[in-house]
Amino acid sequence: MRLVSLKQVRPGMKLARTVFTQDGKVLLGKGMNLTERLIQGLHRSEVDAIYIDDPRTSDIVVEDVIRPQTRQIAVEAIEKTVKQITNSNKLARKISLLEMGLHFQRAFSAILEDLMHNEQMVGHLTTISTHSPSLYHHSVNVAVLSTAVGMSLGYNQSQLMELGIGAMLHDIGKLQLPEELLNTNERWTPEQQEIAKQHTMNGFNLLRKQHDISLLSAHVCLQHHERINGSGYPQGLKGKQVHEYAQIVGICDVYDSLTSPRPWRGRYMPQDAMEYLLGAGGHLFEHHLINAFIKHIAVFPIGSSVVLNTGEVGVVSKVDPDYCHRPTVRILKDGRGNDVHTPYDLDLKTLIKIFIVGFEDEQLFEMSALTPPAESAPTSE
Protein backbone atom coordinates (compact mmCIF):
# COMPACT_ATOMS: atom_id res chain seq x y z
CA MET A 1 0.00 0.00 0.00
CA ARG A 2 1.02 3.61 -0.38
CA LEU A 3 -0.23 6.93 0.91
CA VAL A 4 -1.69 9.49 -1.50
CA SER A 5 -3.37 12.84 -0.94
CA LEU A 6 -7.06 12.90 -1.80
CA LYS A 7 -6.27 15.32 -4.63
CA GLN A 8 -4.36 12.49 -6.32
CA VAL A 9 -7.07 9.84 -5.86
CA ARG A 10 -8.94 8.72 -8.97
CA PRO A 11 -11.99 6.48 -9.49
CA GLY A 12 -11.00 2.83 -9.78
CA MET A 13 -8.31 2.97 -7.11
CA LYS A 14 -8.71 0.44 -4.30
CA LEU A 15 -8.71 1.43 -0.63
CA ALA A 16 -5.96 -0.37 1.29
CA ARG A 17 -6.87 0.76 4.80
CA THR A 18 -10.18 1.47 6.51
CA VAL A 19 -11.11 5.14 6.90
CA PHE A 20 -12.99 6.24 10.01
CA THR A 21 -15.34 9.12 10.72
CA GLN A 22 -14.65 11.75 13.39
CA ASP A 23 -16.61 9.73 15.97
CA GLY A 24 -14.76 6.48 15.28
CA LYS A 25 -17.27 4.79 12.98
CA VAL A 26 -16.19 3.12 9.72
CA LEU A 27 -16.58 5.56 6.83
CA LEU A 28 -15.14 3.33 4.07
CA GLY A 29 -13.91 -0.22 4.51
CA LYS A 30 -10.61 -1.64 3.37
CA GLY A 31 -10.80 -3.17 -0.12
CA MET A 32 -13.49 -0.86 -1.52
CA ASN A 33 -13.12 0.28 -5.11
CA LEU A 34 -13.35 4.06 -5.10
CA THR A 35 -15.90 5.89 -7.21
CA GLU A 36 -16.33 9.60 -7.84
CA ARG A 37 -19.20 9.64 -5.32
CA LEU A 38 -17.11 7.95 -2.62
CA ILE A 39 -14.19 10.30 -3.25
CA GLN A 40 -16.49 13.30 -2.87
CA GLY A 41 -17.74 11.79 0.41
CA LEU A 42 -14.16 11.63 1.67
CA HIS A 43 -13.72 15.31 0.81
CA ARG A 44 -16.88 16.20 2.72
CA SER A 45 -15.59 14.25 5.74
CA GLU A 46 -12.38 16.32 5.68
CA VAL A 47 -10.15 13.33 4.97
CA ASP A 48 -7.08 14.62 3.13
CA ALA A 49 -5.18 11.37 2.50
CA ILE A 50 -5.79 7.64 2.15
CA TYR A 51 -3.80 4.47 1.62
CA ILE A 52 -4.41 2.76 -1.72
CA ASP A 53 -3.55 -0.69 -3.02
CA ASP A 54 -0.66 -0.88 -5.47
CA PRO A 55 0.68 -4.24 -6.70
CA ARG A 56 4.23 -2.85 -6.54
CA THR A 57 3.88 -2.18 -2.81
CA SER A 58 1.47 -4.94 -1.81
CA ASP A 59 3.86 -6.24 0.86
CA ILE A 60 4.14 -2.82 2.53
CA VAL A 61 1.53 -2.92 5.28
CA VAL A 62 0.85 0.12 7.45
CA GLU A 63 -0.76 -0.87 10.73
CA ASP A 64 -2.02 1.44 13.43
CA VAL A 65 0.00 1.12 16.62
CA ILE A 66 -3.29 0.30 18.34
CA ARG A 67 -5.99 -1.98 16.93
CA PRO A 68 -8.95 -0.32 15.16
CA GLN A 69 -11.31 -1.69 17.82
CA THR A 70 -9.12 -0.19 20.57
CA ARG A 71 -9.18 3.20 18.86
CA GLN A 72 -12.95 2.96 18.48
CA ILE A 73 -13.39 2.18 22.20
CA ALA A 74 -11.30 5.24 23.09
CA VAL A 75 -13.06 7.52 20.61
CA GLU A 76 -16.47 6.36 21.87
CA ALA A 77 -15.43 7.04 25.48
CA ILE A 78 -14.54 10.62 24.52
CA GLU A 79 -17.72 10.99 22.46
CA LYS A 80 -19.85 9.73 25.36
CA THR A 81 -18.20 12.23 27.69
CA VAL A 82 -18.88 15.03 25.20
CA LYS A 83 -22.57 14.16 25.19
CA GLN A 84 -22.62 13.97 29.00
CA ILE A 85 -20.98 17.36 29.43
CA THR A 86 -23.27 19.01 26.89
CA ASN A 87 -26.44 17.35 28.25
CA SER A 88 -28.96 20.10 28.95
CA ASN A 89 -30.48 18.11 31.84
CA LYS A 90 -28.32 19.05 34.84
CA LEU A 91 -29.37 16.05 36.97
CA ALA A 92 -28.73 13.56 34.15
CA ARG A 93 -25.37 15.23 33.47
CA LYS A 94 -24.33 14.99 37.12
CA ILE A 95 -25.28 11.31 37.41
CA SER A 96 -23.60 10.24 34.16
CA LEU A 97 -20.36 12.13 34.88
CA LEU A 98 -19.86 10.05 38.03
CA GLU A 99 -18.75 7.16 35.79
CA MET A 100 -16.38 9.22 33.64
CA GLY A 101 -13.23 7.95 35.33
CA LEU A 102 -14.19 4.30 34.92
CA HIS A 103 -14.96 4.82 31.21
CA PHE A 104 -11.51 6.26 30.59
CA GLN A 105 -9.71 3.72 32.73
CA ARG A 106 -11.21 0.95 30.59
CA ALA A 107 -10.48 2.78 27.33
CA PHE A 108 -6.90 3.60 28.23
CA SER A 109 -6.23 0.10 29.59
CA ALA A 110 -6.97 -1.22 26.08
CA ILE A 111 -4.54 1.31 24.55
CA LEU A 112 -1.83 0.42 27.06
CA GLU A 113 -2.29 -3.30 26.47
CA ASP A 114 -1.91 -2.83 22.70
CA LEU A 115 1.23 -0.72 23.12
CA MET A 116 2.86 -3.14 25.54
CA HIS A 117 2.27 -6.06 23.17
CA ASN A 118 3.39 -4.23 20.02
CA GLU A 119 7.04 -5.01 19.38
CA GLN A 120 7.05 -2.75 16.32
CA MET A 121 5.68 0.22 18.26
CA VAL A 122 8.39 2.66 17.18
CA GLY A 123 8.03 1.87 13.49
CA HIS A 124 4.27 2.21 13.56
CA LEU A 125 4.42 5.58 15.31
CA THR A 126 6.00 6.92 12.13
CA THR A 127 2.80 6.62 10.12
CA ILE A 128 0.71 9.59 9.06
CA SER A 129 -2.82 9.49 10.42
CA THR A 130 -5.54 9.53 7.77
CA HIS A 131 -8.35 10.06 10.25
CA SER A 132 -10.36 13.22 9.79
CA PRO A 133 -9.16 15.98 12.10
CA SER A 134 -11.26 16.03 15.25
CA LEU A 135 -11.05 16.37 19.01
CA TYR A 136 -11.71 12.62 19.29
CA HIS A 137 -8.87 11.31 17.13
CA HIS A 138 -6.45 14.04 18.19
CA SER A 139 -7.00 13.06 21.83
CA VAL A 140 -6.34 9.37 21.09
CA ASN A 141 -3.24 10.21 19.02
CA VAL A 142 -1.81 12.34 21.81
CA ALA A 143 -2.54 9.58 24.34
CA VAL A 144 -0.72 6.98 22.22
CA LEU A 145 2.31 9.21 21.62
CA SER A 146 2.48 10.32 25.26
CA THR A 147 2.29 6.74 26.53
CA ALA A 148 5.10 5.69 24.19
CA VAL A 149 7.26 8.45 25.68
CA GLY A 150 6.30 7.42 29.22
CA MET A 151 7.22 3.80 28.47
CA SER A 152 10.62 4.86 27.12
CA LEU A 153 11.20 6.83 30.35
CA GLY A 154 10.52 3.70 32.42
CA TYR A 155 7.19 4.75 33.92
CA ASN A 156 5.36 2.07 35.87
CA GLN A 157 1.77 1.07 35.08
CA SER A 158 0.26 3.49 37.58
CA GLN A 159 2.23 6.40 36.12
CA LEU A 160 1.32 5.40 32.58
CA MET A 161 -2.35 5.33 33.57
CA GLU A 162 -2.14 8.84 35.05
CA LEU A 163 -0.28 10.16 32.02
CA GLY A 164 -2.46 8.39 29.44
CA ILE A 165 -5.81 9.42 30.91
CA GLY A 166 -4.53 12.99 31.26
CA ALA A 167 -3.48 12.89 27.61
CA MET A 168 -6.85 11.54 26.45
CA LEU A 169 -8.62 14.32 28.32
CA HIS A 170 -6.16 17.18 27.82
CA ASP A 171 -8.55 19.14 25.58
CA ILE A 172 -11.82 18.23 27.30
CA GLY A 173 -12.24 21.83 28.48
CA LYS A 174 -12.75 22.93 24.87
CA LEU A 175 -16.28 21.56 25.10
CA GLN A 176 -17.20 24.49 27.32
CA LEU A 177 -16.00 27.08 24.81
CA PRO A 178 -18.52 28.99 22.62
CA GLU A 179 -19.84 26.75 19.85
CA GLU A 180 -19.04 29.29 17.13
CA LEU A 181 -15.39 29.18 18.21
CA LEU A 182 -15.18 25.39 17.90
CA ASN A 183 -16.98 25.22 14.56
CA THR A 184 -15.15 27.98 12.71
CA ASN A 185 -13.08 27.10 9.64
CA GLU A 186 -10.98 30.24 10.04
CA ARG A 187 -7.83 30.75 12.08
CA TRP A 188 -8.68 32.20 15.49
CA THR A 189 -8.24 35.92 15.98
CA PRO A 190 -6.12 37.13 18.95
CA GLU A 191 -9.35 37.82 20.85
CA GLN A 192 -10.65 34.31 20.15
CA GLN A 193 -7.33 32.79 21.19
CA GLU A 194 -7.65 34.50 24.57
CA ILE A 195 -11.10 32.96 25.01
CA ALA A 196 -9.80 29.55 23.88
CA LYS A 197 -7.10 29.62 26.57
CA GLN A 198 -9.87 29.12 29.13
CA HIS A 199 -10.11 25.46 28.08
CA THR A 200 -7.21 24.47 30.34
CA MET A 201 -8.88 25.77 33.50
CA ASN A 202 -12.31 24.55 32.34
CA GLY A 203 -10.97 21.03 31.92
CA PHE A 204 -9.10 21.04 35.21
CA ASN A 205 -12.18 22.17 37.14
CA LEU A 206 -14.19 19.36 35.54
CA LEU A 207 -11.64 16.57 36.07
CA ARG A 208 -10.57 17.41 39.62
CA LYS A 209 -14.14 16.68 40.75
CA GLN A 210 -14.09 13.14 39.33
CA HIS A 211 -13.11 10.72 42.08
CA ASP A 212 -11.91 8.04 39.63
CA ILE A 213 -9.54 10.42 37.83
CA SER A 214 -6.14 11.19 39.38
CA LEU A 215 -5.43 14.80 40.33
CA LEU A 216 -2.21 14.48 38.32
CA SER A 217 -4.28 13.62 35.24
CA ALA A 218 -6.34 16.75 35.91
CA HIS A 219 -3.12 18.78 36.13
CA VAL A 220 -2.14 17.52 32.66
CA CYS A 221 -5.29 19.22 31.41
CA LEU A 222 -4.40 22.39 33.34
CA GLN A 223 -0.71 22.58 32.40
CA HIS A 224 -0.30 21.15 28.88
CA HIS A 225 0.12 24.68 27.46
CA GLU A 226 2.61 25.76 30.14
CA ARG A 227 6.24 26.09 29.02
CA ILE A 228 9.34 25.89 31.20
CA ASN A 229 10.47 29.44 30.30
CA GLY A 230 7.22 30.86 31.70
CA SER A 231 5.73 31.79 28.31
CA GLY A 232 2.78 29.40 28.53
CA TYR A 233 -0.65 29.60 30.09
CA PRO A 234 -2.82 29.75 32.18
CA GLN A 235 -0.42 30.40 35.08
CA GLY A 236 2.90 31.20 33.40
CA LEU A 237 4.69 28.45 35.32
CA LYS A 238 8.44 27.95 34.99
CA GLY A 239 10.91 25.07 35.13
CA LYS A 240 10.00 22.25 37.49
CA GLN A 241 6.68 23.95 38.26
CA VAL A 242 5.44 22.37 35.01
CA HIS A 243 4.80 18.70 35.72
CA GLU A 244 6.67 16.21 33.53
CA TYR A 245 3.37 14.60 32.45
CA ALA A 246 2.12 17.98 31.20
CA GLN A 247 5.35 18.60 29.28
CA ILE A 248 5.10 15.20 27.57
CA VAL A 249 1.49 15.82 26.57
CA GLY A 250 2.40 19.35 25.45
CA ILE A 251 5.11 17.98 23.12
CA CYS A 252 2.79 15.34 21.65
CA ASP A 253 -0.06 17.84 21.33
CA VAL A 254 2.11 20.24 19.32
CA TYR A 255 3.45 17.45 17.07
CA ASP A 256 0.04 15.92 16.31
CA SER A 257 -1.48 19.36 15.69
CA LEU A 258 1.29 20.41 13.31
CA THR A 259 1.16 17.15 11.34
CA SER A 260 -2.64 17.24 11.04
CA PRO A 261 -4.49 19.37 8.46
CA ARG A 262 -6.50 22.44 9.32
CA PRO A 263 -9.10 24.23 7.14
CA TRP A 264 -6.64 27.11 6.64
CA ARG A 265 -3.49 25.00 6.05
CA GLY A 266 -2.23 21.57 5.13
CA ARG A 267 -0.36 19.25 7.48
CA TYR A 268 3.28 20.08 8.06
CA MET A 269 5.89 17.51 7.11
CA PRO A 270 7.02 15.31 10.00
CA GLN A 271 10.61 16.53 9.68
CA ASP A 272 9.45 20.16 9.88
CA ALA A 273 7.48 19.43 13.06
CA MET A 274 10.45 17.58 14.53
CA GLU A 275 12.83 20.46 13.75
CA TYR A 276 10.35 22.81 15.36
CA LEU A 277 10.29 20.74 18.54
CA LEU A 278 14.07 20.31 18.58
CA GLY A 279 14.31 24.09 18.52
CA ALA A 280 12.03 24.19 21.57
CA GLY A 281 14.32 22.02 23.68
CA GLY A 282 15.73 23.73 26.73
CA HIS A 283 13.40 26.72 26.80
CA LEU A 284 9.89 25.46 26.05
CA PHE A 285 10.32 21.79 26.98
CA GLU A 286 13.10 19.89 28.75
CA HIS A 287 15.70 18.41 26.40
CA HIS A 288 15.45 14.85 27.70
CA LEU A 289 11.68 14.77 27.05
CA ILE A 290 12.11 16.04 23.48
CA ASN A 291 14.76 13.36 22.91
CA ALA A 292 12.51 10.63 24.34
CA PHE A 293 9.74 11.76 21.98
CA ILE A 294 12.00 11.91 18.91
CA LYS A 295 12.96 8.25 19.43
CA HIS A 296 9.41 7.24 18.50
CA ILE A 297 8.95 9.38 15.40
CA ALA A 298 10.57 8.76 12.03
CA VAL A 299 10.95 11.62 9.60
CA PHE A 300 9.64 9.63 6.64
CA PRO A 301 6.46 7.63 7.40
CA ILE A 302 6.01 4.09 6.11
CA GLY A 303 3.95 4.08 2.91
CA SER A 304 4.80 7.65 1.90
CA SER A 305 6.26 8.45 -1.53
CA VAL A 306 9.66 10.13 -1.40
CA VAL A 307 12.18 11.62 -3.85
CA LEU A 308 15.89 10.77 -3.64
CA ASN A 309 18.83 13.03 -4.55
CA THR A 310 19.36 10.72 -7.54
CA GLY A 311 15.94 11.73 -8.92
CA GLU A 312 14.50 8.30 -8.18
CA VAL A 313 11.04 8.09 -6.61
CA GLY A 314 9.89 5.37 -4.24
CA VAL A 315 7.79 4.38 -1.26
CA VAL A 316 9.17 4.03 2.26
CA SER A 317 8.90 0.31 2.98
CA LYS A 318 10.74 -0.06 6.29
CA VAL A 319 12.02 2.12 9.13
CA ASP A 320 14.84 1.11 11.46
CA PRO A 321 14.25 2.85 14.83
CA ASP A 322 18.00 3.43 15.18
CA TYR A 323 18.26 5.07 11.74
CA CYS A 324 14.89 6.75 11.33
CA HIS A 325 16.30 9.41 8.97
CA ARG A 326 17.51 6.71 6.56
CA PRO A 327 14.68 4.23 5.87
CA THR A 328 14.44 1.52 3.24
CA VAL A 329 12.80 2.82 0.06
CA ARG A 330 11.01 0.76 -2.64
CA ILE A 331 12.07 2.38 -5.94
CA LEU A 332 9.19 2.80 -8.43
CA LYS A 333 10.59 5.44 -10.83
CA ASP A 334 14.11 5.94 -12.13
CA GLY A 335 16.00 9.22 -12.17
CA ARG A 336 14.34 10.26 -15.44
CA GLY A 337 10.83 9.74 -14.09
CA ASN A 338 10.15 6.45 -15.89
CA ASP A 339 8.45 3.54 -14.13
CA VAL A 340 10.98 0.82 -13.30
CA HIS A 341 10.19 -2.61 -14.72
CA THR A 342 10.95 -4.43 -11.46
CA PRO A 343 10.73 -2.35 -8.27
CA TYR A 344 13.63 -2.84 -5.87
CA ASP A 345 14.53 -1.77 -2.33
CA LEU A 346 17.35 0.57 -1.31
CA ASP A 347 18.44 0.49 2.33
CA LEU A 348 19.62 4.08 2.79
CA LYS A 349 21.48 3.39 6.01
CA THR A 350 24.01 1.41 3.95
CA LEU A 351 24.13 3.88 1.03
CA ILE A 352 25.60 7.04 2.51
CA LYS A 353 25.70 8.98 -0.78
CA ILE A 354 21.97 8.55 -1.39
CA PHE A 355 19.42 10.45 0.67
CA ILE A 356 15.83 11.66 0.62
CA VAL A 357 15.28 15.25 -0.52
CA GLY A 358 11.50 15.44 -0.05
CA PHE A 359 8.07 13.92 -0.55
CA GLU A 360 6.71 13.27 -4.04
CA ASP A 361 3.13 14.16 -3.11
CA GLU A 362 3.73 17.70 -1.87
CA GLN A 363 0.00 18.44 -2.14
CA LEU A 364 -0.37 16.46 1.09
CA PHE A 365 1.69 18.97 3.05
CA GLU A 366 1.90 22.64 3.97
CA MET A 367 4.99 23.89 2.17
CA SER A 368 5.37 27.22 4.01
CA ALA A 369 8.19 27.27 6.54
CA LEU A 370 7.48 26.84 10.23
CA THR A 371 8.75 29.75 12.32
CA PRO A 372 11.29 28.38 14.81
CA PRO A 373 10.05 28.76 18.39
CA ALA A 374 11.81 31.63 20.12
CA GLU A 375 10.67 32.78 23.53
CA SER A 376 6.96 32.10 23.25
CA ALA A 377 5.03 28.85 23.50
CA PRO A 378 4.21 27.16 20.18
CA THR A 379 0.59 27.01 19.19
CA SER A 380 -1.21 23.69 18.86
CA GLU A 381 -4.29 25.04 17.12
TrEMBL record:
Recorded hits in CDD domains, A to Z, give:
HDc
According to the entry, every stretch annotated as the HD-GYP domain falls at 113-309
Output the PROSITE patterns linked to this UniProt entry: HD_GYP (PS51832)
What start and end residues bound the annotated signal peptide?
Answer: none
Recorded superkingdom: Bacteria
A Pfam family hit: HD_5
- Gene3D superfamilies, per database record: Hypothetical protein af1432
Under SUPFAM superfamilies, the record lists:
HD-domain/PDEase-like
Q: Which PANTHER family match?
A: CYCLIC DI-GMP PHOSPHODIESTERASE PA4108, CYCLIC DI-GMP PHOSPHODIESTERASE PA4108-RELATED
Name it: HD-GYP domain-containing protein
